[in-house]
Amino acid sequence: LRVISYCFVCSYPWETVIKAAMRKYPNPMNPNVVGVDVLDRSLDAEGRLHSHRLLSTEWGLPAIVRAILGTNHTQTYVKEHSIVDPEEKKMELCSTNITLTNLISVDERLVYRPHPDNPEVTILTQEAIITVKGVSLSSYLEGMMARRMSANARKGWDAIEWIIQNSEREYASL
Amino acid sequence: MNSVGEACTELKREYDQCFNSWFSEKFLKGDRSGDPCTETFKKYQRCVQKAIKEKDIPIDGVEFMGPIKDKPES
């Protein structure tokens, strides 16, 4: 079991970041996400927006890992639940893989909040729990996944910035 | 972005467009009225649910860490 956590600061206001986060895919930083579907979406009594989404991903695991895990499945499905609270200005997003669960589980939790001292800036905290099950070398695999995810965490933030810059260009060209 | 069901991608685009404009123009600006995309969503959902069944994707019964546990869905 590995737990990794990060904190990033982004120099855009919360609303801008959230808009980008909701339409984060596709982006060039996460080519492994090949499909996104909304399964359910509703407002709760407190006016928060809940979205359940299904992500279709290509993990692109190295051949050695596929050999150790004994699978050729490269397509993996991830379920994601996000809650946007426009009053409190908080977006929380949890995700977990729903296939290959007998081999590995990757649980992620992201929270986007405005910086307490500067509303023009948004803070993203991100944590992930990786568990590889029932294979020898699991600590090796967990370490490797953790390194991959560390790289991906940074990419996630780059993706948000890319979306923001791109949609600004989009609006500007209208 | 594609849908899990190839046939649903067009319906998904239509829904996404409707949702995204409601989300940025109304929801984030404090308008508490629901999104106007219900009809589009229903059509899109019928297509997606069919694709999920065909591909045998286990979307039910997955435990999440985080908000679901401390705040069960109603």
In short, what is this structure?
The complex is a heterodimer of chains A (174) and B (74). With 174 residues, chain A is of the alpha+beta class.
Question: Could you explain how this protein is built, in words?
Answer:
The complex is a heterodimer of chains A (174) and B (74). Chain A is of the alpha+beta class and 174 residues long. Chain A has a single domain (2-168), classed as Alpha-D-Glucose-1,6-Bisphosphate, Chain A, domain 4 (2-Layer Sandwich), CATH 3.30.530. Chain A has 3 helices and 7 strands. Chain A has a 7-stranded antiparallel beta sheet. The model of chain A has no long low-confidence stretch (mean pLDDT 84). Chain B is an all-alpha fold. Helix content of chain B is 53%, strand content 0%. Chain B is built from 3 helices and no strands. Classes of the chains: A alpha+beta (174), B mainly alpha (74).
The amount of helix of chain A comes to 25-40%
Query: What is the global morphology of chain B?
Result: elongated
Rg from alpha-carbon coordinates of chain A: 17 Å
Strand order of the largest sheet of chain A: 1-7-6-5-4-3-2
Topology pattern of chain B, helix = H, strand = E: HHH
- N- to C-terminal distance of chain B: 30 Å
CATH superfamily of chain A: START domain
Family (chain B): Belongs to the TRIAP1/MDM35 family.
Keywords (chain B): Disulfide bond
GO molecular function (chain B): phosphatidic acid transfer activity
GO biological process, one term (chain B): phospholipid translocation
Output the keywords.
heterodimer, A: about 170 residues, alpha+beta, Alpha-D-Glucose-1,6-Bisphosphate, Chain A, domain 4, seven-stranded antiparallel β-sheet, about 30% helix, B: mainly alpha
